[in-house]
Request: fold
Amino acid sequence: MSEGHPVFAALYDWLGGAMERGWMGERRARLLTEARGAVLEIGGGTGANLPHYRDVERVTVSEPDPFMRRRLRPKLGAARVPIVVSEAGAEALPFPDGSFDTVVSTLVLCTVPDQRAALDEIRRVLRPGGRLLFIEHVRAEGSVARWQDRIEPLWSCLLGGCHPNRDTLAAIGAAGFEIDWFDGFYPPVPLSRLTAHIPLRHVIGTARAPASQRRARRPRGGYAPAPP
Reply:
């Protein structure tokens, strides 16, 4: 079980309040309209996604950080669907193969200690053809990417184990998912008070667990900015 990040958990809602009232909350709501059936949300944090779930059977929220769970549980009443909270980390999910129709990851694949293992587990617990819905901040290009590499140790220490330089979109494809669509964007306002002067490239999109072991197709679209 994770030892957790007590200070980061205590500050999380305050740090992200502006983005949740604006661009991030809007994108969460839009993305989660695509959730269906039995849903697994990895790294549920303090529960920012809970009010946005609608036409699903149930949601299992996995959150290994005990300090995040402490702030998540009082928000369960804001959900309009049945919610179960799990202490599992994404790299070792205690669920049978094909248990879920949808997996949700929002600002999580940057923080998991082993991203490849987490994506393998997500694919395992999704039914064939099930969908991964994601919003993640990712590695940029050129000089910005090199700058991300330099600040990564301090950034990870201050922001709950986050790695700002991961090429998460490529990792999703490498794990065998078929990327349905994605948009790349830079937030119109800062990610948080701690990152007010730091541009963070994001992606929002969906990917599908293949029904067979055929090679995953290339994603549609590209890094066109999504509307704020």
